[in-house]
Design goal:
The chain is built from 3 helices and 25 strands. By secondary structure, the protein is mainly β. Strands 1, 2, 3, 5, 6, 9 and 14 form a 7-stranded mixed sheet that branches. Strands 4, 7, 8, 11, 12 and 13 form a 6-stranded antiparallel sheet that branches. The chain has a 5-stranded mixed sheet with strand order 18-17-20-22-25, with no helix packed on it. Strand 2 and strand 3 form a beta hairpin.
Length: 346
């Protein structure tokens, strides 16, 4: 083969590669995902409740005609011996359902929303959440968002087995299947619960004061990044937690107590390494009549403006000591905490 012929052959192959590459570049390129996110609230403990969102996404690049997503049928597997789904609408006549969300689809027609045991073949999951939803008009070509929110309750210690099953599908407006490129779910372990107990009293009150002493203060546990873990629970007339805050053993938490008219109190860090941790007692400081977690001139003026009036019509936060009447006692409690802000130390 002459040198000229070889050069011509190389040039022809190069041209063919360029043409084929340009042709393939015109074909549509779509990427989809169906994802169960990690816990957004609650605690994965035996007897505890927690929530996981389910979201979808689709991305079309600029090559070719975009592929819209018109419908989604999702099978979310789980182990019913370890976790159960909490019924969203609390209506036993329509079975156990999850909360359908307008995040990915803006207008939704629901076809199926139920828990199935076992999960239908080809899935091998012992149970699954089965939802089928479609957008009423027009598909989504680029976007992401929630399609559902699942609330779980822990039944026993072990792996929850939450998964996005391979039988999950997406559909375009013509009823043609669109491949789900990414199916993922968190690995969630249900743990034996730890417990946080304690006592919260309120300045200006005693256990015997009507109507309920130190009762109804709200107490909540968060993780160190601010996510809700447990609660709120309330206190009794003596200020003792009515029920413990149930949290996973081995964690580190922030506990916050609050009540209208009072500065919040905060205990951090709280290490739960055993079955029960008592974080001792604290007293909420009063005078926050406008609920901004500080006591200043605006609170004193607000209390003075309602002076000698009953509550109601005076707002509950203005009746600082919760005795049903705005009086000198409320004003002096606020004055004693002038320029103090929360959260105060536990």
């Amino acid at each position: 083969m002459s040198k000229l012929i070889r050069l011509m052959l190389v040039a022809a192959l190069a041209a063919l590669w360029i043409v084929s590459g340009s042709v393939s570049a015109q074909s549509p390129n779509v990427y989809t995902s169906l994802v169960v996110s990690d816990i957004t609230s609650g605690a994965p403990v035996i007897g505890g409740f927690f929530t996981t969102p389910v979201s979808a996404s689709v991305t079309n690049d600029s090559r070719g005609t975009p592929t819209p997503i018109q419908g989604i049928e999702a099978y979310i597997g789980f182990d019913p011996d370890i976790v159960n789904v909490v019924d969203f609408d609390s209506n036993p006549t329509n079975g156990v359902q999850v909360e359908i969300k307008t995040g990915f689809f803006t207008s939704i027609q629901t076809g199926i929303n139920r828990v199935e045991t076992p999960c239908p073949p080809p899935s091998s999951a012992p149970a699954c959440v089965h939802i089928a939803i479609s957008q009423i008009s027009g598909g989504v070509t680029n976007g992401s968002g929630l399609i559902a929110r699942i609330r779980w309750v822990g039944r026993a210690a072990g792996a929850a087995g939450i998964s996005v099953e391979a039988s999950s599908v997406m559909s375009d407006p013509d009823g043609m299947s669109v491949i789900i490129n990414n199916r993922s779910a968190p690995s969630i372990q249900i743990l034996s619960p730890g417990a946080i107990t304690g006592t919260v009293t309120r300045q200006g009150r005693t256990p015997s004061m009507p109507p309920d002493g130190h009762a109804h203060t709200s107490v909540t546990a968060y993780n160190l990044s601010g996510g809700l873990v447990a609660g709120p629970v309330e206190t009794d007339r003596y200020g003792i937690f009515v029920s413990p805050l149930q949290v996973p053993v081995g964690g580190t938490y922030v506990v916050v107590a609050s009540y209208p008219g009072y500065l919040s109190a905060r205990k951090s860090p709280v290490y739960v390494v055993g079955a029960t941790v008592d974080i001792d007692s604290t007293q909420l400081r009063g005078g926050d009549a406008n609920s901004d977690n500080c006591v200043n001139i605006f609170d004193l003026v607000t209390i003075a403006s309602w002076f000698s009036q009953s509550s109601p019509p005076a707002p509950p936060a203005v009746d600082i000591n919760d005795d049903g009447f705005v009086s000198i006692f409320d004003l002096t409690i606020a004055a004693s905490n002038f320029l103090r802000c929360g959260s105060t130390a536990w």
